[in-house]
Structure prediction request, 957 residues.
Amino acid sequence: MNVGVVQFPGSNDERDAAWAVRHLGGDAELIWHGATSLGSVDAVILPGGFSYGDYLRCGAIARFAKVMPAVMEFARAGGPVLGICNGFQILCEAGLLPGALVRNAGLRFVCRPQPIVVERSISKLLDADKGEVLVIPVKHGEGRYVAGAEQLKQMEALGQIVFRYCDLDGWRVQSANPNGATDGIAGVCNEAGNVMGMMPHPEHAVDATVGFHSSDGAAVIGGLLKSAVRV
Amino acid sequence: MTVAQAASLGLTEDEYQRIVETLQRDPTVAELAMYGAMWSEHCSYKSSKIYLKTLPTEGPRVVMGPGESAGIIDIGDGLVAVFKLESHNHPSFVEPVQGAATGVGGIVRDIISAGARPVALLDPLRFGMPDEWSQRHLLAGVVAGISQYGNSIGIPTIGGEVKFDPCYGGNPLVNVMCVGIGEAAHVQRARAEGTGNVALLMGSKTGRDGIGGVSVLASRPFDEEAEAKRPSVQVGDPFTEKVVIEACLEIARRGLLVGLQDLGGAGLCCATSETASRGMVGLDLVLDSVPLREGDMEPFEILTSESQERMLAIVRPGDVEEALEICRTWGVLATPVATVKGGGNLTVSFHGDVVADVPARSLADEGPTYHRPAARPDWIDDLRASDPLALPAPKDFGEALLELLGSPNICSKRWVYQQYDSIVQHNTLEGPGGDAAVLRIEGTPRALAISTDGNGRWCQLDPKVGAAHAVAEAARNVACSGARPVAITNCLNFGNPEHPEVMWQFSEAVAGIGEACIALGTPVTGGNVSFYNQSGSTQIHPTPVIGMVGILEDASKRVGIAWPNDHAVILLGETRAELGGSEWAWVAHEHLGGTPPALDLDAERRLLFLLAELAENDLIASAHDCSDGGLGVTLAECAIASGVGATIEAATDLDPHMWLFSESAARVVVTAPTRGVILEAASKAGVPATVLGRTGGTHLRVEGLVDLEVAEMAATFEGALPLLLS
Prediction:
């Protein structure tokens, strides 16, 4: 199972994502942002970081990277694509996912272990059941998910909302929302379920000896590996 | 040129005469600016070097000591750790966000200069009291600057300190430590060698920002005109830094480098003269080749600009094209600007004219050396005579403990470190909040343990003992994680060296550091001196900050501060009635007086050895050192970290508040399933050990003194800083 991790200038978590894939038994290769083809990959990760510095809106420049048409083609053909943090921002900017990510409500960067609850969704990139609470780190300054009311209603109806922020017991209390995201949304997928974006970093939660000492991210990275077989 | 012009660059009349003697003529404008920058206190260490020379710098693991960009130690398997601690105090006061951000950028480039990938940042910070609006503004700005820059370049910030004292109100301390890991075979030297080799200037274009940074900002005290110094503060561009890091590491990996140095204080002038001087060569520098932000810059401006995110790489002529190609791939601007030549002169040309032609050594290594007068301050005897043991004891010991847990210096710094990405690069075994940060060394079973420590109040009472304690505490913190301390770097933050009292404090502190480093076997691999930390007539407390690096041979044996349920609680070390400069004396009585706790370096060494042994043999479940706030706070922090209480017996002849809050050194609280084996090991190691009680329950009970619910202590501890800053 070969996962391509796209490396933009300013990406920070590309090595971490590749390491997490390998840690869970998959193969991973870095794909340079200037490439025009993805080569022979079974799944794609757009990793976290600050692509091109993110001095403009996050992900606004990365969506025009040379590699992006190939990523969009891969997604349209049903290939599994996971956007993490900056990758989620890029997928929204590229129109592969609905909504947008704006400055945290607290106006400060936040890095902490974050419980999220798995919603009933059509995401094909997940190895977890509805109602499960996963502890996966967040680390971002612009992770507040926003979308129009109509759009949210439609996403809810179609099962496109994959994760919501919650406390350790699964309650969606206000204090558990790290960035003021609308409806506590932490991750969404497209209408086909093969493209998913999330602010929390599952690649930083596959080995409980490091980071915030959780391995719950395996449900996502492992899910991506399984989906690559299915699609 | 006149002496008056020289003075405006911070040069004295004597220094001007020295330049004339060196050159056998009057200097040009560009030359004078170069000497002004390179002979500044910040670059030349002219007041401090006679003392720094006395520090122990050699040890079995030291690969490179002071003198290059950063210190390097051998960490096994052909790998090295590269580390350095530096200050960005004055820029951060003038412009907190950019000052702190560019402080991070600068120290990171020092690590890259050695060919290592930066793997960790730690930030020791000092501010005035947080009940003042201006101090909250500074803290928020500095933390935002570190957060924006450090997070953007993908280096985890895994530790540091935040402390408050009124003496820092007009002059905060913003120190940054960076640690890198590289291959011993690819260690780079910051030197130019080989006639005909080419110096490439990589990274940002050169602008008018930061001109005079080292001489105007860093090497003079603050006065009413501090605001007007803002143009001397540089603006950071973390994205450029990130791609410069990647390009430099790739060039190093391919073996294309002869030498590599960052451009920091005194910019291109410093990088060219230092690399030439170290390599004992000359350089022909063509300023017309330097990419500029503004076309009409004068030669002296191009030479001394402190524009950020720039590196100077020396490569062989045949490798220039490959190096440039790597830079193009990463989108990094790179331009050949100088050629290595024989002799030893740095020759600078502009528009076909030679604008400067000076011996590189005279700039980099042959600057003035001062034996400034040093005198023990008169006030110190009065300060020491003010006996903290005479302070009234608290009526309610539980209340007193809670008050300490909620005080600015002791409370949780989560509000700060939650803004730092502490987990990127997936090697953080222990992030901020514990005794030492612990970082896995990928591809090996080992880990690095790192701690930064400094106690300004103790140094105010006794700079020698206080500074030695900083080394001992840093070593103890590293040992609490199970590691063996290996080497230190330091950042020596002091007041105005032109005051004999400050010079006395400095000389005493350096002596203390030297003594402690010899006793503990942790040589000094480098460091940084920050003088002129003065605002108006107020000098900061002498604040040497120590950055200690240790090695854990087996990362799986690391120990944390959280204690498990139903374990014996044992105090290693002895508690004496020592409240001088303590947190309790300050919080309860705003008292600073007496003497620091007694220093016993032999006891410290025995304790370090014992801790490593206990951890390596899996005998302890947790370890936490006793420092600010004493034993009471240590017990509370262990309980808060785990959510598990304890029942403790206060078997002591001391007054209860002295037993609870004394800050006697060489003490650590450990827990273990059974006490016998610990007591035996301690006795064999010559470390006093006392069984205090057992963990369990929801309360921390110290019989007859304290009975507090762990949840209540946690709420106070965690809630204090957000409340203070709101």
User: Anything to note?
Assistant: The two ends of chain B are 54 Å apart (CA to CA).
